[in-house]
Design brief:
Four copies of one chain form a homotetramer. Chain A is built from 17 helices and four strands. By secondary structure, chain A is mainly alpha-helical. The first copy, chain A, has a two-stranded antiparallel ribbon with strand order 1-2. Chain A has a two-stranded antiparallel sheet with strand order 3-4. In chain A, α1 packs antiparallel against α2 (about 20-30) and α5 packs antiparallel against α6 (about 135-160). Chains B and C meet through β1, β2, α6, α7 and α8 of B and β1, β2, α6, α7 and α8 of C.
């Protein structure tokens, strides 16, 4: 907010509305260390917002330190101009942090993707074993989503990172005919976009960035949820990096709880409610500046953004140190005695006897295997229709998960290609 | 949480599980001023919750101050036992505060109700003038809702204010066969209800109180919303009590913004999203104790409860100092030139010419009044069907808002009767 | 709504406002089969609600069938009176259905509770094995929650199942001084509670029942979520009752997807958002009757209630036919080679060497077992501190899940006692 | 979904996986009129989704009508492939409809903007009169927001309108090594984007479009809310276009309720809850395909999208026929006796006596005007400091709203410029 006040004074000096010397004086007192935050906080309640006591303190500081210049403080602006622009400046910082975190998490995901590109893992649908996939493919799906988030963030910045400046009711009448001129200079000073007009009560920009963080957190939460399921005692395919004393139980000596994943999930769960609040609060503000909705944003948006950012960084750490238990990956693939390759057998058999006949026959075999508590492979080899068309060797080849990975490699390659070209572009952009 | 640890030690001493002297020693160190809160906070992240570092600090304090007793700290309990019971103890305090605030707000509403029982005010539906009501009746509807909230709060306390005590996974196995005995003694020590079993992952009790505060805030927000509409410049029927410097604008000298009402509305807007988070977070916790959902409660429930309580208290202040502009009440009733009594005329005319004919005829008159920019009374007196059945005097009587208030007085009396009997009961209950 | 119109006519006849013969005529046409629903639906949009075209059709029917009586239709009522009271009558039916469904689900849970009261199962916290519990205890926690829901439903009925009757703006002015008299007779006719005044824009009653269904669905969803986790291929402890062709995959012959559980979860996920909509929509209605909020209720509340009711019934079916795989229960208990009893060993060791020393020592043993890929029992027996204090037999006894169930039986008994006394009461109440 | 099945067969024929003649036969039966929808609906519950019975019916149709080809139906695809791609095809239609509706609403807003560019209206903040603006500027803010929505919609299409095709668990293993080749041909057939891999359980694309509609509805709701406030009896600045019989009350002859605006608000209120459901449901789907979350999307997304679209079209109608009462605009500006220009006087006075002195002095004058129930102009002219610096003429000029509109015209021009360049581009794009 102080950056706004200083820039406003400079901009108004540039266009000749206030004297340059006064602008300079104002700028010298726009330092947060000079302010009494306790008083700011206390006065905000009765004032209705934090800008009024902030401007009062700034005025007092200048009245004492550079008497005569205090009359030019906050010239022509309204409280919401400084609060909203201050928010936008903070959101800009936030986007830098998020861009870097996204960059890191993409790098880590790409590493995992390459490392496990050909490592078979159980593909699970409806929380049931489906067909084999590779762990790299599972990771690639997350990387692919993160690339979309990078794209979204890049797109919304032009819309969101813009100046708020309209004066009392959006006309900048307090600056006579020179409002737009000041606005333009002010946007330049702050290196923010210059909108056609102020957007005090049209807050789709603010909610758009809330949507972005919510979507991002959706992906972060989905990854954490999958990890939590893979970490179950019965699955045991991955675990969190160990930290000394982390995740212990106060009573159970053997426990090593996935505390990082729990904290990510705890964050992800809170986001949809916060976003719905942002929508209700921000989008229905009355007339030129509303009543209540804006106030409701103040605690909601920062909570949504920082919660998301924290969770994204925690996820990055979990992924970087992720412990993958190769034995469990393998033993889980074998857990159903080959059932996980029922589709593989069915597709090949379909070429011999037709799709529906094959599907029905293999379904019978799977049910027999289940009811007789026997192995799918054994039940299969006992089936005359199978014996007729396939040798034992052929069946064993079909039952090898590594032979039924379809286009996994091509897909991973596609995602990595997209990542690599994106990544280079990011490096070139700088900030 | 320290109250829980002290009471647990006492309870276990009572049933003979730990030595009484050790229980006493433990109790002496269960004082929050002895604890390093910064360390607590810092350790909570890696531990996954605040109970583990709290128990560690307590243990260290006792190891130093009463060596030998530290081994009995937190005996048989799990982290969630102490955190949840600590929460319940806080919620109990909260309910006391809310009972008092509700009591006060009901008193104020009852006063307003009596004071304005017969004062006509525009009844508004669809944000349009409908028929006259009394300001007392408008208030009575709010009082009636508050009485229901008092009733709800009284009912839920038996369900919500109960002990949490189950040990690692709810069996209290760490206490052998004596778990229930300890639980019973512990509930007595803390004066909490004793549930049949622990409820670590069945959190309907917690969400029930969140529902209560959400409903309460719904009413608080509705009252604030109506006040905000009555405070509009064009309506001007009520205003907030003035506070020195409150509600001023940084640029517009004439502004006196309804800052208290705005803060109530800002709070009310946030509640539905917080409640939806509570539902998602608390109700879907996995198995015996979940992953992530519990964590999401930690910031959400306190925010929901304290936001609601603050807003309720702000509302009480606004209502106590509410400035009612009698002139505006009257001039708004007259604003439509009698249209607000179109139903009154129509109902009486219906007895002469039938309901639908009367409705249609009066509708025509209202439209004529509108299109000819004339007064409804004048248009009515010019209508032959009216002339046939009514004298000018009769019409003027019909057009007096005070004559068309129906059962307002009886209804207000009914609400006040309910309030008075309830109120006495509350006073008798004490706490 | 037609029940309302018929009862209104009877009530007004009883108190002498309309002639009894006309009331009887009106009653004869209040039959939904006489109405053109297509026209009703089409006219609702332009009218703004369904009551206006309904009253129009009813009037036309009577004008034709019993000319002269049509003038007394809907006498003194407003659209919201008939729509809201119609809603309350439907909610009353809904509560009957829900009471029965709750009754059934409690019976089924009680049966499961008794059947599996002593059957050990893995207790899981943080999605990790914690300590053994019994399957009966897991069920008892759900039964306990359902008993609370029964209690809540019983409590809210007096508040929610009440008449709505206020006329244009709540004063019943259209009935002169006799509004309350009609209201009283009308409530009697409909066997609904009689509130002190109308509650057109104070809709906490409506949202209270939405909260009830949301809480109930929270429990239903939690049970379904646990079942879905127990049904995972790697866990395999329970499965849905088989239905012919149900849960098959279009491509994978071996798949038997938990479709009933998925549909319950799909329903549970939708509820928090619907409840937040109800709160926003219903609680902030302006003045005497609002604009938009009421409209938003119309699709939201029925969806919330019927979705919940359907899911509750689906859950009842799943629980009734639940297939429990005793072998998996047992083999999962053994999966960690005894680690699940680490607390049991630690608690007993604590009595010999102190709590913290015991916890630390057993933690070391568990880590050694893990790092050396050996069995916890073996690692334990190799530990000198253990050898010093315990015989092999004692250790084996400690490692038996059936010996570490704590107060499970007492807790189950407590829940069943509550169920049994409640259940009898329900039977006595009848409806 | 049938478009998907037909295109899949063609694509597989193109790459040589199934015979072209069979593909043609399949295509001939992919006509929705051949299907028994009642059976589809009934079978969906037990199957768990609608694709399985749809594929069954299609297979039966072909078995009868083109025997031999039925074995190639749905070859290699999974249920979610066809359901999701079917959804994307519907969403594409939806975006066309929305683009057109947005186009229309922008045209109408631009017309209003030009027509009322210089018409003064009260600018309102905190629901209080602030300073004058123009009605055109108020409209321009809405147009500006709609232009952003057009931009967002254009951006998201490339991400959202893409093929879903992954087979059982995303690997397309059922198509051997040729999965990507088929995917590519299939995307071409359907004119959809081709993603790097399937996105069965990474549903940010779906939630992104839900976010878009929610943001759009936020703006629609904000406009409707402002209109509803301007339509209040006491404000009376605008009204809905009259429709015969629309908006009447069942009891109050004079009522003309804003039914269209109420229906828009009723829709807008439901959206935040629906979006929060979409986030919870869609973003947390487990592993390769989830359990419950996908099911929860099925009713939620269509409701969100169609509700939004309907409301947008209703808004377009309201705006097209909007009745603006010029007299009310003017009389409301005069309602405060000039107070609305307090800032104007203060800013000019500031140049003479300093900003804070001016603000304080004018605040005193406004308070005196209020407490003495006199006119601001009169109070101002009685003030010696004013008399000293200004003539009566100068004061009267300052108190003319038309002289205190600041940069309104420039801002409107800016928005219209953006609209015009955008609009041309849209026309050029065609579809």
């Amino acid at each position: 907010m102080l950056d706004f006040e200083a820039a406003l004074a400079r901009a108004e000096a540039r266009v000749g509305i206030i004297p340059p010397a006064d602008a300079e004086n104002i700028g010298q007192f726009c330092r947060s260390d000079l302010f009494d935050k306790h008083l700011l906080s206390a006065s905000s309640a009765s004032s209705g917002n934090v800008a009024i006591p902030m401007v009062q303190q700034l005025t007092e500081l200048i009245r004492t330190g550079a008497p005569g210049s205090e009359g030019y403080v906050h010239w022509g602006a309204t409280s919401q101009d400084v609060i909203d622009t201050g928010l936008v400046l903070q959101l800009r910082e936030m986007t830098y942090i998020t861009e870097e975190a996204l960059h890191n998490v993409c790098d880590t995901l790409a590493d995992l993707c390459r490392r496990y590109a050909t490592t078979p893992i159980v593909g699970r649908t409806w929380l049931q074993h489906a067909v084999p996939i590779t762990f790299g493919l599972k990771i690639a799906a997350s990387l692919d989503a993160m690339l979309r988030h990078q794209e979204r963030l890049a797109e919304l910045k032009a819309r969101v990172l813009v100046l708020q400046f309209g004066g009392a009711a959006g006309t900048l009448a307090s600056l006579g005919a020179r409002g737009k001129e000041v606005a333009s200079a002010l946007a330049e000073e702050l290196k923010l976009g210059l909108p056609s007009m102020s957007w005090h009560a049209h807050r789709d920009r603010i909610v758009e960035i809330a949507c972005f963080y919510s979507l991002l957190m959706g992906t972060v939460g989905k990854i954490a949820r999958d990890l939590s399921l893979l970490m179950q005692t019965e699955v045991g395919e991955v675990s969190e990096p160990h930290s000394e004393g982390g995740g212990g139980s106060s009573t159970m000596p053997h426990k090593r709880n996935p505390v990082a994943v729990a904290s990510i999930l705890g964050a992800a769960i809170r986001v949809p409610g916060l976003l719905s609040t942002m929508l209700v609060a921000a989008m229905s503000q009355e007339h030129e500046r509303g009543l209540g909705g804006w106030q409701a944003e103040w605690s909601t948006l920062p909570e949504l953004c920082t919660t998301s950012e924290d969770a994204l960084e925690t996820l990055a750490e979990v992924l970087e140190g992720l412990i993958v238990d190769a034995d469990s990956l393998q033993s889980n693939l074998e857990k159903t005695g080959g059932l996980i390759l029922a589709e593989a057998v069915s597709m090949v058999l379909a070429e011999k006897i037709g799709k529906h006949e094959a599907h029905a026959l293999i379904r019978q075999v799977t049910q027999r295997a289940s009811s007789e508590s026997t192995n799918f492979r054994v039940a299969l080899l006992n089936e005359s229709a199978i014996q007729k068309h396939f040798s034992v060797d052929e069946i064993d080849k079909l039952l090898n998960p590594a032979h039924y990975l379809g286009s996994s490699a091509t897909m991973i390659r596609g995602v990595l290609d997209a990542y690599e070209s994106r990544s280079i572009q990011y490096a070139k952009d700088g900030k």
